[in-house]
Predict the structure of Ribonuclease J.
Amino acid sequence: MNMNLYGHDGQWLMVDCGVSFNEPLVSGDISTSEVVCADPRFISEQKERLAGIVITHAHEDHVGALPFLWRRFKCPIYTTAFTAEVLRRKLAQVGLLDQVPIIEVDDKETKKIGVFTVKWFGLTHSVPEPYAMTIETPAGRLFHTGDWKIDRHPMLGKSFSSTAFKALAKENVLAMVCDSTNALKAGFSPSERDCYQGLLQTIAAEKNRVVVGCFSSNVARLVALGRIAKETGRYLALIGRSLINMVGAARVTGHWPEDIPIIEASHLGYLPREEVLAVVTGSQGEPRATLNRLAVDNCFDLSLDADDLVVFSAMRIPGNEQAIDRLVSQFKGRKIRTLQAHDTELTIHVSGHPCQEELKQLYTWVQPQLAIPVHGEPQHLDANADVAKSSHVPDQLVGRNGDLYQLAPTVSIRRQAVKTGRIALLR
């Protein structure tokens, strides 16, 4: 549930405004709320100073809170065409479609947002049109990576190009604010193309129904499954509103291949078992999602039988292990087979975030004066800082939620300068 604020000369720029699911509002609390976001009170109480909001990409943890919080900000939103389309669909659901100013941007484009000059840089991630950006003020230039990985063979969009990032080395980048999600993992994150091959081998060997649970915003994974359906003589169907909305946004913005058909989920029941490939939501064990309803045989469009296969093509987000294990046990109790990444040597899921060697490469290309790790637990931030240090970045600043990083004229952190917390949202 990312919410980053950059301040200069009495103005603020927000980067991302996301949600998380089934989380406690207070750390250690047993009870959870279905949809949670960062408490925006600090900035909403001075919204006249908020120059704009920039959304890096269309994942829920970066864009999902905007429809619920925008009335507290009432400022323009800057993002790319695909993310804008996803956001418009969300705004329509809460009656805000015609009220929110959305400015679409593209690769290498520059916008002046209040005192901030923002330039966008395309990279690769597990969703269409992910962007990094530089944020420049008279005090210095920052580089905000957003979520990223180095994927030379993506299923969707252009392959990762280092040219623009190498050029940043000549622009005296004061600080690089960098994704830390996979900073504990050595090597490189595998390509989406590797995942396509792994899923193809898995599904091609099956003679019964196959259900794949994955994140709805991973359009590249959905395209891969569409191609696999064609190659294995199956029909692809989507079960879950978020999946249908995401593919709709991909179609409108030209990211969904015209040669990949999708059938109505209501037709699945008429097909032989060996022709069914359903993609569903709920890979994290969410109680109201489709996978959970399939486990208890309460899904209107599809029923599973013994020896059908459920594939979890998604990471186990820390904190969700018990919910996922409970879901797997329900399937096994009905003799429905399940397959998770740790059950097979085949690559059935790949991360969209950089491992240590990718972090080293980007730090080496950009050559910032300062590394600021974000987006991860404390151990991930510390590991990212270690990678930056080994990559010859002169200084590293590691903080926590609520810390205020002063980057100019001197560098320091004011610990817990801003009161932070979580609030529950209604969907």
Observations:
- Residues 232 and 379 are 42 Å apart (CA to CA).
